[in-house]
Amino acid sequence: MPAAFLNADKLSIRLADSTLEYEPLLLARHASRLAELVDKCLALRKDIRELEVLSVKSLTDYELFESTSGLDEQLEVLRLQTNSKNVEASGFEKAIAIFGDTSVEKGLTEISRGKQLGLQADVDDCTKMEKLITQRWANLRQYQEAYHARYTEPGNAHNFGQRAELLLRVLIVQMHEAVARAAAISSGVHVIYGQALEEFPHELTMQSLDDFALWALRALRELGRAADDEESAEIVLPLVQPWFGPNGSLIDMQTFKDAISGAKGKPISLPFEIRDDGMLDARTRIRAISLSFGNEYNPSSSGIDRNQTTDAFSRMFVKITTPEQIAEDGTSYRRSPVVLGNVCLHAAGSPLATADGATVENLRPFGKWTVDVHPLAVWKDSSIKTVSANRDDEAKMLEVRDFKLTLRTYVPGKIVPLPKLLQSQ
Questions:
Q1: Which run of H or of E encompasses 386?
Q2: Pair type for strands 231-238 and 400-411
Q3: Can you give the pTM of this predicted structure?
Q4: Dihedrals φ, ψ of 293, to 5°?
Q5: Superkingdom of this entry's organism (predicted)?
């Protein structure tokens, strides 16, 4: 069997204490992936153990055959009793020679001759049988040697040791990812829920895999119960429109106008800050981010906006820099910017430009944001439509008055540890 396979029980997977290979905020993805990994690791370990049994059995069976086949061959030959039959036949032959010519002695002579001939024939048969037994065992040894060669031939299906070694390599990769995902989940729960899961086994071995699987099972169930208590909401935050009461707007109206007019055909940068002032729950997390633009409202007598049809043809490209996030160790970092290439007019219904998934999942909304706007808008025809004023092109300017930031949010539930009775079952 391969040496690596023989050392399977010495396998140990451990992450450095400060190592986080995955973004902790992607909690749902880690939980789903961890469930898959645990199933795969348990199945792989089962296959490896079964191959270990087959490999050991094939090796010991062959060694047993090698050590006992010679004995079995000798026993079969001894059961023929060729030597004793030879001795007995020789005795009858000597008796024939010393019997006299009396009638009784002649009768004994014939009896002895008959037995001697029968024994001699038996001896001849035994001699032939010895040769056949020897040939049969030689053939059997040849067969066992040829079949044993399959157990050690690289790539052969009978090479159980090599197959187990290959599966062990796969298991190492899966176990390493499982520990890394578990570390990310543990950190993510601390950051998002402000709570701590039961400490997971940081060192994973073939023997401790069961304990790790139980930890994962309990952790996933606790997260599932917390998800049942989540509160979801979708809110629209205008950047310029005074909507925040005493705090006014996120971006001062004059500051916004100066940024638009001063860009001179270059990208427009709009920084703002969402404060944790009690309007949103302090534990609020983001699931998706959308953006739409607003412009001058020009109602007719019927209440229909005269500009709406024209504005509906416009699309804008923006890049949103989200607030810094706080890691478990207290350090701050930023996620990748959110890019939206289909920002349209703010109207009834959901905005077209929405980003969800890894870039925004579980972001905390409080902090400093920046919206960078491409200077040109996508328009219905081939003409240029600018977002910012540009020397001689004010007639072609898209009259942007505001941006509306839509956040799909939720407030996490509470992690409730499983009762000890359930943990021990």
A1: strand 385-386
A2: antiparallel
A3: 0.78
A4: -115, 155
A5: Bacteria
